[in-house]
Amino acid sequence: MLIGIMIMVSMAGCKTATRKPTPARYTPAPTRTTPAPSKTPTAVKKPTTESARASRIASNVAKIPEVNKATVVVYGSTALVGVDLKARVQGTLETDVKKKIEKTVKDTDKSITRVYVTADPDLYKRIENIAKGISAGRPVSEFAKQISEIIKRITPGM
Description:
By secondary structure, this protein is α+β, with helices and mostly antiparallel strands. The protein has a domain at 49-154: Alpha-Beta Plaits, CATH 3.30.70.1350. It is 44% helix and 14% strand. It contains 5 helices and 3 strands; from the N terminus they run ααββαβαα. The protein has a 3-stranded mixed sheet with strand order 1-2-3, with helices on both faces. Strand 2, helix 3 and strand 3 form a beta-alpha-beta unit.
């Protein structure tokens, strides 16, 4: 019996050792250095309604023979028009040309009720800068104070 126990003990002690499973290695996913491509194309800002109206008006005013070029800002039912007149236009002729410009503006856009026209080079540049800002997508209301100042300079008696 003693021999039987010893054989059993020796056999139990000679078992092959079970190996522990090796831990799975963690490999982090590579980080993305470039942004994922957009599924929708970047929206291009379209000109505002006022900007499109102003562009159409400026184009028609520039067709007047006495006008070299024109820039326009439309603010609701008001049009602010800056013009570069030809050198020979002065005095009463300038007044007649401004009336022709006003008629052209109102004929081009029937919703315009007030038209302010200036041939002053400084005011022309200011109107042009406002028009560029509006075309770039900035709101017309952002320029309300400047527009008001320009109108006061065009019509000082008002």
